[in-house]
Amino acid sequence: MKDLFGHAIYDYYFNNSPENIITETSISEEDEMDVSYLFRTYENMPKIEQKALDLSRGKVLDVGCGAGSHSLALQKNHLDITAVDISKKAIATCKARGVKQTKVCHILELEENTKYDTILLIMNGTGIFGTLDETPKYLTKLKKLLSIGGQILIDSSDIIYMFDEDDDGGKWIPGSNYYGELTFKLSYKNQTEDAFPWLYLDYNTLQNIAHANELKCELIIEGEHFDYLAKLTL
């Protein structure tokens, strides 16, 4: 991977001629993302993210930490937080911003000898699962990382609204796979990352998969744009 997302984060923080990120999915056209959004403070975060941080407790794992804004907010509350991301540039930025414990690591490669009271997967945390079929593998890994009484706080969106309606009010949805399975592509400074799978899960589907994998699932809060925060527990 070219790690364009990490490069954008790094360039913004170190004032290295940053530009906006261009994103595109298999069901949406190109859109610009201002990298400054990834550096928002708690006060400027959506309510779903604020709620996830408010509920965080104990030893916390921030999965896909990006620029580290969530980790920094939790550090201010004196929580024991470890921030992980596959991007070396993102983690370098986290360290420079003052995140104390960081790892360049894919979630599936994390050692299981350390257990966490809270595992955070926010900003469409289900995205890293990639596809519906891959989701049980990730849930199994997350279970192994949870302490007794621990919690997984994860958000996503029901993107059914993005599909066209027919005359009867039904949705035109591809029949070959789950409608929340997208391919995602991003560009930065005239470079383009290879497309990768990205998963949006509606709450009912998440709940069903969680139960099938021996996890309790609770809806915590719903947002204004078909998004939600859920809590998974053993």
Percent in helix:
10-25%
Number of strands: 12
> How many distinct domains?
1
CATH architecture, by name, is: 3-Layer(aba) Sandwich
Span between termini: 34 Å
Query: What CATH first level would be assigned?
Result: Alpha Beta
Strand content: 25-35%
Low-confidence stretches: none
Estimated structural class: alpha/beta
Major beta sheet summary? 7 strands, mixed
Name given to the CATH homologous superfamily: Vaccinia Virus protein VP39
Order of helices and strands: HEEHEHEHEEHEEEEHEE
In words, what does this structure look like?
The chain is of the alpha/beta class. It has a single domain (45-185, 196-233), classed as Vaccinia Virus protein VP39 (Rossmann fold, 3-Layer(aba) Sandwich). 25% of the residues lie in helices and 31% in strands. The protein has helices spanning 4-13, 47-55, 69-76, 88-97, 135-145, 203-212; strands spanning 21-25, 28-33, 59-63, 80-85, 101-104, 116-121, 146-157, 181-188, 191-192, 196-199, 216-222, 227-233. The strands form 2 sheets. It has a 7-stranded mixed β-sheet, sandwiched between helices. α1 packs parallel to α4 (88-97). It starts with a helix and ends with a strand.
